[in-house]
């Protein structure tokens, strides 16, 4: 979603925090395009510049699983360097 939204909607790292005084609800949305789909920004910023490169979904998944303990490294790999 972060790549499609060109950074407007940020992905978060999952973190579970227990609070016995307040109930917590979590809502998860999974988007799963075809493996050969190319994912790229659909929403452009004020200056119409892309902040993320086009990436194949299967490559994104491989990076995501290979770097699962490195925070958001898989998202950072898709960012266009300024």
Automatic annotation (TrEMBL):
InterPro entries: IPNS-like_FE2OG_OXY, IPNS-like_sf, Iron_ascorbate_oxido_reductase. It holds the Pfam family 2OG-FeII_Oxy. SUPFAM superfamilies: Clavaminate synthase-like. It comes from the Eukaryota. Residues 1-33 form the Isopenicillin N synthase-like Fe(2+) 2OG dioxygenase domain. This is Isopenicillin N synthase-like Fe(2+) 2OG dioxygenase domain-containing protein. It comes from Crotalaria pallida (Smooth rattlebox).
């Amino acid at each position: 979603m972060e790549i499609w939204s060109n950074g407007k909607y940020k992905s978060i790292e999952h973190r579970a925090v227990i609070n016995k005084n307040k109930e917590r609800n979590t809502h998860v949305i999974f988007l799963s395009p075809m493996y050969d789909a190319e994912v790229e920004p659909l929403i452009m910023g004020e200056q119409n510049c892309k902040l993320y490169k086009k990436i194949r979904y299967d490559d994104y998944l491989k990076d995501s699983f290979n770097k699962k303990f490195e925070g958001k490294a898989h998202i950072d790999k898709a960012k266009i360097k300024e």
